[in-house]
Write a structure and sequence with these properties.
Blueprint: H1 11-14, H2 25-46, H3 49-65, H4 70-84, E1 106-115, E2 121-126, E3 135-136, E4 139-141, H5 148-160, E5 168-177, E6 182-192, E7 203-208, H6 210-213, H7 219-230, E8 234-238, E9 241-242
Parallel strand pairs: 1-6, 5-8
Antiparallel strand pairs: 1-4, 2-3, 2-7, 5-6, 8-9
Length: 243
């Protein structure tokens, strides 16, 4: 339905709007997420407190829709602040440290091979980047203070909406691009998980068998899954070729 969006409860009455309907719980939640993106974008553009108040209002609604409370959110916020700190000191991280005087950058990533009880893999169809449209295993950069299993858990949740624990390191990969001079070491971790994946800004998440996915897997994801299946612990990719 083109142009539809969630509006505040009194808007139809205030502006005499009749072309509206009541959403079911699933659509309501998705529209709340869209509304959060909209209001956050408006605040980022205008920097007005009124826009920030709209963001807070949507957050209240999302918390309620998830069956939680602001008290629970506040508890989680305080726990994270105690563990990782707040944003009071205005610290800006400049990215992974450069090696020596060269422009080469070595980054550390953690990617997850997640399987369910049906033997399927948790995969995402990438929405952006040089491998847009391809299938990949979830994962990303390890943040300062994180261990690889913590990074894997965070990335899987952010990219697929599935909460997974119990990650174990099963190997690692070296990625190198000679033309750009960039290099990456990827920790590969395995865990078993269940749950309904959700599409995110990163990609469309799905459970798939290897046979269903193998022709669309990007080379890194394909080799990572085969490494795990074959009991190997390491592989290298240079200029998008396994060496």
């Amino acid at each position: 339905m083109a142009g539809k969006k969630l509006v505040r409860d009194k808007i139809p009455e205030l502006f005499n709007l009749t072309n509206n309907y009541i959403a079911d719980d699933e659509e309501y939640y998705l529209e709340l997420v869209n509304k959060l993106k909209e209001e956050t974008s408006e605040f980022a553009h205008d920097h007005e407190l009124e826009e920030l108040a709209d963001v807070v209002e949507v957050i209240h609604a999302i918390v309620k829709a998830k069956g939680s409370s602001m008290e629970e959110i506040e508890k989680i916020r305080e726990e994270k602040a105690e563990k990782r700190g707040r944003f009071d000191k205005k610290i800006i991280w400049k990215g992974n440290q450069r090696i020596g005087e060269s422009q080469d950058i070595i980054r550390l990533n953690a990617n997850a091979i997640v399987t369910n009880s049906d033997g399927k893999f948790l995969l995402i169809r990438l929405k952006k980047g040089p491998f847009k449209g391809g299938l990949c295993i979830p994962g990303g950069g390890v943040m300062p203070g994180e261990l690889s299993n913590e990074a894997a858990k965070r990335e899987v949740l952010e990219e697929t909406g599935v909460s997974v624990s119990g990650f174990n390191v099963c190997g690692f990969c070296e990625l190198k691009h000679n033309s750009s001079g960039k290099q990456k070491v990827v920790m590969l971790l395995h865990a078993k998980g269940e749950g309904e994946p959700k599409d995110t800004e990163e990609g469309e998440a799905r459970w798939m068998t290897y046979d269903e996915a193998k022709h669309e897997l990007i080379i890194f994801a394909d080799e990572a899954i085969k490494m795990w299946q074959e009991g190997r612990t390491h592989f290298r990719i240079v200029n998008e070729r396994v060496v």
